[in-house]
Amino acid sequence: MATRWFGAPVQRNEDPRLLRGQGLYVDDIDLPGMLHAAVLRSPYAHAKIVRIDTQAASNLPGVHLVLTATDLGEVLEPSPLLIPHPALTHPRTQLPLALHEVRYVGEAVAFVVADSRYLAEDALELIDVAYEPLPVVHSLATASAPDAPLVHEDVQGNVAAHLLQSVGNPDEVLANAPHVIRETLQMERGAAMPMECRGIVARWDHYEQMLTCWISTQAPIPIRNGLAAIFHLPEHKVRVIAPDVGGGFGAKIMLFYPEEILTPFATMRLGRPVKWIEDRRENFISTNQERGQLHEVEYAFDDQGVLLAVRDVFLHDTGAYTPYGIIVPIITSCSLPGPYRLKHYASDCQALYTNKVPVSPYRGAGRPHAVFVMERIMDRIALELQMDRLEVRARNFIRPDEFPWDVGLVYQDGGPTRYDSGNYQAALDKLKLALDYDTFATRQAEARVQGRYLGLGIGYYVEGTSIGPYEGAHVRVEPDGRVFVATGVTSQGQSHQTVFAQIVADQLGIEPQAVLVATGDTQAFNWGVGTFASRAATVAGSAVHLAAVKVRKKIQALAAELFEASAEDIELAEGKVFVKGAPQRALTLGQLAIKANPLRYTYGESARTLAAMNLAAARPGPALPPERDAPGLEADGFYSPPHGSFASGVHGAIIEVDPATGMVSFIKYVAVHDCGHLINPLVVEGQVHGGVAQGIGGAFFERLVYDDTAQLLSSTFMDYLIPTAAEIPDITVEHIETPSPLNPLGMKGVGEAGVIPVAALFASALDDALSPWHIRIREMPLHPCRLHELLQEARCHKAVLPLATEKPGAPTENCH
Amino acid sequence: MVTIKQTSMPALHDMCSLSLTVNGQHYERRVPARLLLSDFLRHELHLTGTHVGCEHGVCGCCTILLNGEAVRSCLMLAVQADGMDLTTIEGFASSQEPLHPIQQAFQEKHALQCGFCTPGIIVSVHALLREHPMPTEEEIRHGLSGNLCRCTGYQNIVAAVKCAAVYLADQETTHSRNENNK
Ligand code: FES
Ligand code: FES
Q: Which residues have CB under 8 Å from A436's CB, separation 6+?
């Protein structure tokens, strides 16, 4: 193979279209006769619905349909529970429209379809709903209180699930270890906030009896299957397309959001296309969120800094419903050991209902919490033993010769948490160099003399990626020589039209620009799952590779026949196919595709050239001989990993804190990352940059603030602060490549990686910068005011207790 | 028990006439007074490259040029643009034309992922580079701070702006050289 595209920094196929403003996002679709929908949402976090009067709304000119729960007939079913689990003893999912009770602010109550969105919103204002407010569970503390109000009347203690996992004998080790520490660590809610909100356009075609939906989703195939079941249609009569999707980050993997059922319902009822586009306010109160957890962790270590055992008891805020099961807390539980040889570990998690937006994975999906806990532990061990923080980690690493490493826990996919490969020390060494770690203490001391507070933080993580069950792909050579690829996964910015093209280009001897990749259209490819869990490039990429290898073989077999040569001697390069050593007599891929279809009629320039080429004559017998079972140069490939592959990495940063204001700035940020073989370093680095930016947002700027009636107070971009170019530093990305043995190209996932260690790193850097005050960060996210508060508290406790005996949540009464 | 009752009918929405130029083309329309400029561009003129990410003036996805100034089209009514000259992302390069130097720099530096924020950012960058033809890092970051991007972490966008500045300066030099040689 002359050029190798895999691994090259290829510019993206999707860019020219997107740069010209010619992308096609859901709201760009405008169908003839299309109507527009709006949703009436609950203003209460918990209330009984006593009565709904829609008369005035229905009478408004231009309104075509007003739906409440009782209008939905047999479609009024709770949304399916996507991922059941034995520990999830009390799952509850949402109705498309609330019937008797609302359980969070933003829950859908009525659906209006009108000539325009403006009119539909006018109509919402004419709907009268009588609510009877009920007691509200606004926090994990309230949810777990002995006399807590109940989010679901029949779920005692608000406990949706109780998940216990353990390895070794943590109780015994904790009872006998030389050092034991217990701490409370907390993370609050944040949200994915893709720049494009959710949306759907649905069309019912009466003549074809076919439902077509364009949805801003990460999972069109599962939605297609679900809609077919809900509306009693054969699967091939439902087409779901995820066109260009303006970011997802996990929030769009959720199904079904109510509008994904209501909009198709309305189009089938009215016989006209219907569009519903979420606005940002709705996105804040009706698109799933994540991150709320409260950990009580107890851990033991010896005098050498070796971690002996961990017992982590945590509460997970699952919101009002559990559509996505308990995937997030399972991931937290399994990710906590990270890169360390933890032999004795118990994890005890209760997922609790609260009167807030339901929780499902958001980039990182339970991992940032786990890494926060474990890396806080590592820093604390170093502090207690007065050891170097990196040295403590090094002493606990799983060594390269210990892979595959079994953590001993059941992962989110039901398989083992088995690390396939890794080299944790190598990444740490790279980080040390990039940060100039050895001179940092001097730099820090010099800065302190000038009254500047520098801190260095690190965060190490291992990330389960590339889980099954499977993905598939179709690869076909077109008569014009271009290659068409289709797969079931979607793209929300991950550059699949480029990276899959690179994989195919290598097999077929063409340029990536000659490969057209279709993603997220159930009619282009029928099988698959979706883009989540850092799995699309690896799992679907492997399927694309397998399909391309099959097509290459077909090309070689056919060319061998035509050139009267042997298949092993056929080469593919620069879009041409020829016998080794004789490139002057070559067929283009397109000509070969024409030849692969034994028709009596052929068209165009290529066909004329072919006729003049003096190729081997057709053999007698069937036009498609048994060894060529089908016409065309095409093949399907499927890839199903035995279990997830585990990427890893370590981030380090140097920050400066202004203790007077609590403001923090980054001086340097380094991410060392191992995702096996890289398909495209530009794309991988872009993913890491974006992840880190979200991590920084989640650690210091973004916080979903609920009051005690569970009203969201930070529900605009004026209050929920997504970081801008002015806050995010440049990030140096370094790669380690330990290939995964689990897939043909040795890849691991990267989509979520960037975000995972940032909260831990930020805490670590703050502790370091503020060490004169003995600050110990135990919560995320922080913001300047909160940091300032912590500093004030610390100043008031000048006679600081040695940290090991300090109780979590030390009293602050005497502080003003 | 609390009853939320809202019975007042919204006022009838007068239609107003509107005449304006978008990307060099003149349009005359009658539109409801309350129609947002962003909705007018996207849904009346089908210029869907202008995106809407928040409708409250923070994300910058809807940025367009209004008489040469970068403005947020979600914060204006269409009728307020009466008599004005607008440029949207579609005015930077049609499918037949090569990419504008800013767009080209964005592709080379991998400054977009999902692409949703991109049109607004390119329009903002255009305005930024007109004011600061060779901006410092700080000027770039400050100039971009009215546009949110949730995908890229901004680093490659900053690199693309630097690169675009050079392309535009080269173009300027070539242009003036050609003028001088006339
Ligand atoms: S849509 Fe106009 S600023 Fe966000
Ligand atoms: S590229 Fe997705 S928001 Fe900027």
A: none
Determine contact, residues A695/A758, Cβ cutoff 8 Å: yes
Contact call for A118 and B94, based on CB within 8 A: no
CATH for A722: 3.30.365.10
User: Same structural domain for residues A547 and A659?
Assistant: no
Q: Sorting pLDDT into bands at 50, 70 and 90, what band is A623?
A: confident
Q: CATH number of B15-91: 3.40.50.1100, 3.10.20.30, 3.30.565.10, 3.30.10.10?
A: 3.10.20.30
pLDDT of A586 > 90? The answer is yes
Q: Is residue A532 in some structural domain?
A: yes
Give the N- to C-terminal CA distance of chain B in Å, as an integer: 82
Query: Chain B 86-145, CB below 8 Å of chain A: which residues?
Result: 88-90, 92-95, 99, 103, 106-108, 110, 112-119, 122, 140-142, 144-145
Mean pLDDT of all residues in B90-105: 94
Task: Please check whether residue A693 is in contact with residue B156, taking contact to mean a CB–CB distance below 8 angstroms.
Answer: no
Q: Is B115 in the pocket of ligand 2 (CB under 6 A)?
A: yes
Report the separation in Å between the CA atom of A494 and the middle of ligand 2, taken as the mean of its atom positions: 11
Is the pLDDT at A216 greater than 90? The verdict is yes
Looking at every residue in chain A, the average pLDDT score rounds to 92
CATH superfamily of B101-176: [2Fe-2S]-binding domain (1.10.150.120)
Task: Tell me the pLDDT band of A486, cut-offs 50, 70 and 90.
Answer: very high
DSSP letter assigned to residue A289: B
Looking at residue A3, its pLDDT comes to 66
Given pLDDT bands bounded at 50, 70 and 90, which one contains residue A624? Answer: confident
What ipTM is given for this predicted complex?
A: 0.93
If phi > 0 it is left, if psi is from -120 to 50 it is alpha, else beta; for residue A307 that is beta
Checking if the pLDDT of A509 tops 70, the result is yes
The predicted structure's pLDDT at residue A748 = 86
Strand partners, A310: A299, A345
Q: Is the pLDDT of residue A813 over 90?
A: no
Domain with CATH 1.10.150.120 in chain B: 101-176
Task: For residues A347 and A327, give the distance between their C-alpha atoms in angstroms, rounded to a whole number.
Answer: 15
**What's the pLDDT at B76?**
96
- A368 vs A815 pLDDT, higher one: A368
Decide: residue A638, CB within 10 A, 0-12 exposed, 13-18 middle, 19+ buried: middle
Q: Is the Cβ of A513 closer than 8 Å to some Cβ of chain B?
A: no
% helix / strand / coil in chain A, to the nearest 5?
A: 30, 25, 45
What is the per-residue pLDDT for B182? Answer: 61
Phi-psi map region of A255: left, alpha, beta (phi>0 left; psi -120 to 50 alpha): beta
Is residue A24 a part of any domain in this protein? no
Q: Give the residue numbers spanning the domain of A594.
A: 468-639
How far apart are the CA of A42 and the nearest CA of chain B, in angstroms? 11
Please give the backbone phi and psi of residue A216, each rounded to the nearest 5 degrees, phi first. -80, 85
Name the E strands within A583-724.
586-588, 634-639, 645-658, 663-674
Half-sphere exposure (Cβ direction) of A520: Cα atoms closer than 13 Å: 28
Peptide bond into A646 cis (omega under 30): no
Peptide bond into A416 cis (omega under 30): no
Strands A586-588 and A576-579: antiparallel
- Write out pLDDT tens, residues A793-810: 888 875 444 343 333 333
CA angle A326/A327/A333 to nearest 5° reads 90
Residues A176 and A240 in one domain: yes
Does residue A237 carry a pLDDT above 50? yes
pLDDT tens-digit map of A2-35? 569 999 999 999 999 999 999 999 999 999 999 9
SS3 content of chain B, % helix, strand, coil (to 5): 40, 20, 40
DSSP E strand boundaries for A148-205: 159-167, 179-187, 199-205
